[in-house]
Design brief:
Layout: H1 19-37, H2 43-52, H3 61-72, H4 77-89, E1 93-96, E2 101-104, E3 118-123, E4 129-132, H5 135-147, E5 156-161, H6 164-168
Parallel strand pairs: 3-5
Antiparallel strand pairs: 1-2, 3-4
Length: 175
């Protein structure tokens, strides 16, 4: 969960925010969810979640594997994928399909069967991702699909653009 005191309503972190607070809040929230659901947040699952939350930029499974290998001397891909599957199943992270990478979920409290759809704004300049949770947008997609007889099972919306921080930086004359 992002610390909303650190993020404006646009979902992107403000310049100079205390990212450590984001990571700690996500880990604390995950521990509570696991306790409530009576599932185990093993040390490896916790560490993988911490690595995913280590930045507001999506991270790939092999990048996570590299971090763990650097810490533990070795890490097997199946263990990382199992940890990612657990975190996905429990709504603690999202997979950014277009990047084949993962980001932390800002609202992991939903029961796994009622997991909310992902709507992501991806900055093409800095790589940061903001998750937005707009029920109206979700309903609009489901409604449009229903009108043509399509049943939505899962939806992830990924929008590429420029975040407010990068947008505010003037482009150099060399571009």
């Amino acid at each position: 969960m992002h610390d909303t005191r650190q993020h404006p309503e646009n979902g992107f972190p403000e310049a100079g925010h205390d990212h450590h607070t984001c990571v700690e809040a996500a880990l604390e929230k995950a521990a509570g969810i696991c306790e409530q659901r009576q599932v185990r947040l093993t040390p490896l699952r916790r560490r993988v979640l911490e690595v995913v939350w280590s930045s507001h930029k999506p991270i790939g499974a092999y990048d996570i594997l590299d971090v763990l290998a650097g810490e533990r001397g070795s890490a097997a891909p199946p263990t990382v994928y199992r940890a990612l599957d657990f975190l996905l199943k429990n709504g603690m992270i999202h997979r950014i399909e277009s990047l084949n990478a993962f980001v932390g979920c800002i609202d992991p409290d939903h029961p796994p069967a009622e997991r909310h759809s992902g709507q992501f704004l991806i900055c093409r300049t800095c790589g940061s991702v903001a998750e937005i949770a707009d029920p109206g947008l979700e309903r609009a997609v489901v409604g449009a699909a229903a009108r043509i007889g399509f049943t939505v099972e899962r939806q992830t919306i990924e929008v590429l653009g420029t975040c407010p921080i990068c947008h505010a930086v003037p482009e150099s004359a060399d571009d």
